[in-house]
Batch of 3 targets.
Target 1
Amino acid sequence: MQSQKATRIDLFSLATPQMRAFHITWLAFFVCFFAWFAVAPLMPVIKGEFELTNDQVYNINIAAVGITILVRLLIGPMCDRFGPRLTYTGLLILGSVPVIGIAFANSYESFLFFRLAIGAIGASFVITQFHTSVMFAPNVVGTANATVGGWGNAGGGVTQSVMPLILAALVSVGVEKTMGWRLSMIVPGVMMLVVAFLYFRFTQDTPEGNIMELRARGIAVDSGKKGGWAVFKQAMTNYRVWMLAITYGACFGVEIFIHAVAATYYVERFSLDLTQAGMAAGSFGLLALFARALGGIASDRVARSKGLDGRTLLLFALMVGEGIGLLAFAYAGSVVLAVVAMLAFGLFTHMACGATYALVPFIDRKALGGVAGIIGAGGNVGAVAAGFLLKGVGNLPGALFILGIAVLISSLCAISVRFSLTHKETEQKLYDEAVAQRAVTSGQPAFA
């Protein structure tokens, strides 16, 4: 199936199944990420309404990312078995229920339940990466994965800024804040249902067609030949998967942890109002518009001359930069310094996320769903660990400092990922074939 994967990204085209998957996938992930963290910038209002203690807020933040671990582990094999089209459509429809349902919460316990359930839509990332991995060839798959992931992640930044504005608009027409935040949550729920229709109607699983239909016709596909759970078990035996799960926990885990706490942090530490805090926090998420893609592009460029070993060394360097930046951010003394430091470490964080999933398609092609699911779940394990760390330390600067140290240590896992000579030769052959095919179809030298 290598020959039918796209060897270039025609950004302004929807003519091919590869590019339709590219654009609808990042849109779906954007909407899921928007909905996942839509309630985060509204937490100062919600905290007052329900009279929540700091400990209860910490529990809510942990719940928001905790269930995602399990669902990400499940969603990978489901992609292998049913294909990303049906899996994504189902997740969007089911995920919209708790997003809208949280508007009806009337106590800490009911709010916690819905926040836990909303976390399931964080598994959308695994489907996003699976879909582009089977659609794009080795010379551009890192860029494709990182770009759709980054543009989707930007939903976490946009929601930090947009949700307070929606609430402010409702309040300006006479709606009470306690009702306004509830009405605001209906917006992302409806968005998810619209995108579910688009995904089902306009995408297909692979360049050749839908996985279940291909398998029924006896046509082999790159992933899932043995069925979802078999390839999941295969992925579990690969030590590289677990090393990258740790690195992803140290970059994506930090990213979603910051999404969950940033707005409240700026309100409580620097006395910003809800809109100002949302803008400050949102700037971190908006880095995903380009920074994650930049990590994938850099990985593809390094792979031209350094191969797979170059990809791992790049990831190591980015994580070192992230760790140092976190240490600087931990004790920033003013709002300006805090924002500057946050953007600095955020750049490395997003790029490291992109570089991690630029490696994922090369770990084990026959167990792609399992590989993507386990590594993706690692990101949420990192976020949950960060949440418990904050709960234990009791203050964000102290927790951030410890996180910085942890990231630096975790960077060693990146350089521990090594490949056999046979594996590297096989992947290099596929890479060279993709570059040659691109040159033939474009009539000019190809660039990864």
Target 2
Amino acid sequence: MDMPIPDSKSSAVATQGPTRALAEFVAGLDLTQVDDFARHAARRHTIDTLGAMIAGATQDATLSVEKAFAAAGIGAGTVPMAGVKQRYDVLSATYVGGTCGHGLELDDGYRAGSVHPGGVVVPAALALGAQRHVSGKAFLASVVAGYEATCRIAAASHPRSRWRGFHNTGTAGVIGSAVTAGALLGYDADRMEGAIGAAASYASGIFTFLAGGDVKRTHPGHAAREGVLAALLVEAGLPTPRGALEFKDGFFNAYAGGEGIDYAKLDILAAGDNHPKSRFAVANCYMKPYASCRHIHAMIDAVLDMAAKDGLTAAQVKAVDIGSYAVAAAHGEVGWTEMTTAQMSIPFTVATALVRGRVTLADFGEAERRDPAILGLTGAIRTTIDEECDAIYPRKRGAKVKVTTADGRVLERTVMEPFGSASNPLTDAGVAEKFLGLVAPRLGQARAQAALDMLWKVDELADIAPLAEALAA
């Protein structure tokens, strides 16, 4: 995707550069500047992320992080974190929270940047907000600011960053976390640019997780912690670089590649795309109805629609031919020996949807990954790059699915906007149902409902700390 270059009306951006433009936009941002649609979207995405965090608090990756902190003798403190029993220092709480949120592939995302903003922004806002006893208005404003930074930077990098091997959640996410923390700390544009400059030096995260293991789960944790630390270092007086995004040895050249692009002329606030009802990035993020990589959701939608409307069953399937964009099609080669890889695998996930009529957390266990009915179908699923889908990505995450049945029928579906997107969203009732389904098993139904009631009115809270306590295990 080519990055937008400002026209003559955006000359200020070209003069000051994207780092300063972003810093000025998010510094001092308060809810009076945020339209009602985006404000409600921020509530919804906070609820959605916290549900994923609480459900992910008992996953193996989270437990490994907690054990590692204990072994290192770090982390103990007074800051609560959603779904977690242990109280930590603010940095460790943020790391644990970010790991919780991304661990079950249930967290939100921004299509244009192929990034998961909630997992880096919400833990940072919750941990630092609870420690500093900020108001609900300040908390929600920091969430909006953090999403803006994460999503715009990721969109300006993608898909070049992906083909260079970088995971935008770990790279752009660290800056989003720093902006979230800077907003909570009341930074002006100078300090915010400094926080961005420090965070850019701490960005990391590559796609080695496609070879297996659980390291991907920790990417948002690492990014969220390092972003908060960057903001705190600025508060402590550390000198930091300016223009870190566009500098010739800066973020964009390192992670997205130079390729003759003049990043100093990038209109960072125009990177990606917007919902028709709002210019804020949080308003155009998606939520996941299925517990798998978002690149596979259009394909799941397609086969589930065939099952619902055409009566398709797994036993009838002879072949499944899927055409999609290159980034998605690469997941056609991913195996399923571990839960991590199975959630990224087109053959396993689409076969699961056909056999079980769903794609939930319960469908990625060890026994499920050995299910003969599913394994017998994976070999019939073929994935290729579709020129149309590839041409419109990342504006759309499309897939074309053709199913040939044993009796010769051919069923076809094209899905260009999978369920859960901002243009095809979960209802508020659906957001609440997902939250309660994830949280009640951990906190109990009464506590889960009480927390949800607080979250729908989060910007009315005088102090965010009681909410953080209510969400902790």
Target 3
Amino acid sequence: MINPVLNTDSYKTSHFLQYPPETQRVFAYAESRGGAYERTLFFGLQAILKREFAHPVTRRDVDEAHDVLREHGVPFNRHGWDMLLRRHEGRLPIEIRAVPEGSVVPTHQALMTVVNTDPDFAWLPSYVETALLRIWYPVTVATISWHVRQRIRAALEATADDPAAELPFKLHDFGARGVSSEASAALGGMAHLVSFKGTDTLSAIMAARRLYNEPMAGFSIPAAEHSTITAWGRDGEEAAYANMIARFGVPGATFAVVSDSYDLYHAVDDLWGRHLRQQVIDSGATLVVRPDSGDPVTVVAKTMALLAGRFGTDLNGKGYRVLRNVRVIQGDGVNPQSIGAIFDRIVADGFSASNIAFGMGGALLQRLDRDTLGFAYKASAIEIAGAWRDIFKDPATDSAKRSKRGLLGLVGEGARWETVPVDGARFEPLDGRRNALRPVWRDGRLLVDESLTQIRRRAAGFEAAA
């Protein structure tokens, strides 16, 4: 377990010596300053609070930090941390407010605020920035996933008979092996599960159970990989596929088979389409063919056409072709742009979006950073000798890094949100409206503990404004 005293940047350990005399409170906020998307889906704070803030600081933590930082060459606020142990039993005297998780909020708005509740700990709101600003990661993953969901939803609504039933399983998380740690897989994988229910990231399933009160957040199916197919040898490719039918082909089941180990089009047209066709049909299961190489748009289109020729199609209520007995999943080269291009092609060819699902790995959980949505955490107000005053930065060399000033709250709903001034007592808007940034943490205690089901429901409510 991480030492909470050391869960910060080295330079922040000297900040307790840098504030003006008689500083009593510091007020900070976090926002997305814009980037790849104009709206963000807020998610992940509850997980960060439970994993990194829930355990009180101990005497052992303070002693270890004292020794480490002395050798490291930076100051250590031994008096402050000892006072925290005595006065607050190791619990951080701060209040964190945040927009409800699952909310979809335009960029450039305050998503979270932090203020100390004990005037002797004005240095804490800045000290905890390092841990709290890691919110950028689950928010960015959740935002990417939510925007992909809107693209898939549009394709399904235009070409499928039952879009609502199909949508949750159209984007599958393949990203566990492509991230830097198990913790990233868990946090990013949960962020994806706000919008979808398909995942192969078991770390996310377990984290959702422990951190978001969700007994089973996502689902998967039996699926082959190249090692299990090529283990049969090139001459045994057909036998490998037949084994998949024998093992998993039961009525109503779904199973996926990677089919490009040697020659994808031969596998689709001859092995699946002729030699094993009747076995697939007789099994009563749905075979999902997975291409895994080549240009995604071209490969998906040709695979779908070959499957249609061998297994046949039915016209749905919207006049689009739906494959019989088989589907396609594309997991190679998948990103928001290629998903759109694939839909454009197959719909132009007369196929329903029902025929395909997608697996996203690195582009979902790893091909992003704090600048993807321009996340920042800044102090915006300071209380000195009982009086609040604004603080801000306004660099002449980069106006995009101009920070907000004053005590801040958030009001609005749907697609309309606005960051507004609040008072210094209750932190409610000066104009009488309600602050959408609700208290979620105060003095070491979690105030809001929601399930993933609640958060999914809230996120779904924003789709009308998408």
